[in-house]
From TrEMBL:
The lineage of its organism: Bacteria, Pseudomonadati, Pseudomonadota, Betaproteobacteria, Candidatus Accumulibacter. Keywords: Activator, DNA-binding, Transcription, Transcription regulation. This is Na(+)/H(+) antiporter regulatory protein. PROSITE patterns: HTH_LYSR (PS50931). The keyword Transcription regulation applies. Residues 2-59 form the HTH lysR-type domain. InterPro entries: LysR_HTH_N (IPR000847), LysR_subst-bd (IPR005119), WH-like_DNA-bd_sf (IPR036388), WH_DNA-bd_sf (IPR036390). GO terms for molecular function: DNA binding; DNA-binding transcription factor activity.
Amino acid sequence: MLNYRHLHYFWSVAKCGGITRASERLHLTPQTLSGQLGQFEQQLGRPLFRRVGRRMELTETGELALSYAEEMFQVGAELEEMLSRRPEQRRLPFRVGIADAVPKTIAHRLLSPALSLPEPVRLLCRADRLDRLLAELAIHRLDMVLADRPLPANMDVKGYSHPLGQCGVAFLAAPNLAAQLSGSFPAKLDGAPLLLPGEDSALRTPLLRWLERQKVRPRIVGEFDDSALMKAFGHSGRGIFPAPAARAREVERQYGTITLGQTDDVQERFFAISVERLLTHPAVVAVSEGARRGLLGDEANDGEAAPCSE
């Protein structure tokens, strides 16, 4: 069985960068701490540190152990903090991963119902690539992942995709750029500078195919994994950019842009990915129910969650 006192000693040494500093923090002699660390490595059967000159560096096993230790002590600190508060002061942790491709205006709209629950919620958001977020979901470091696609079938993760909604795509541009374009939509996109979502976005390929069907060939001047960064470049007049049609007016107000046109032939879809087939976390349930009420400006798809990986 894992010795949690030894784990704490290891974590302290890793965080402090050496035995001397960690021993001062723990009020132990360096000899005692070194001995305890040696016992822990002997129990695991693998070294956690290697000596590089006077420094101690984590081995591959040490890096793995540290990642788990960080999570365990963080959860422990949260538990201690929660239990120390009066019942009316306690907040339910809600850990959400937001894929980079999901527009932040959509994420904000979808997550808002979770903050209106009778039970206070502490929202913890992390934005990253979808594959990294799914890896954290698999080991229960996240309660839910917001994505623009269902859980990929080739991912070695057991989970379920819960449809939240879909909408068409609008094309927006800064006023100075819009004034330079002539003709009707979508013909005015031909030859114009275009900002595209990155390869991790589910929207990218359908968007390019739609442009090809329209016989429109814009100049692709930028590609972005982060949708907010793409809009920031669009705001500066660097190019036209796509955004969910349901939130086009909101994007106009936030970034001072103009909608050139929109299409329903290309649909942006949004999903809540969880390890649960039937949602039980109150905040996740609130997000799903809020989406069903049409928070995206388009009614969410009804139906049972689609299993993505067994």
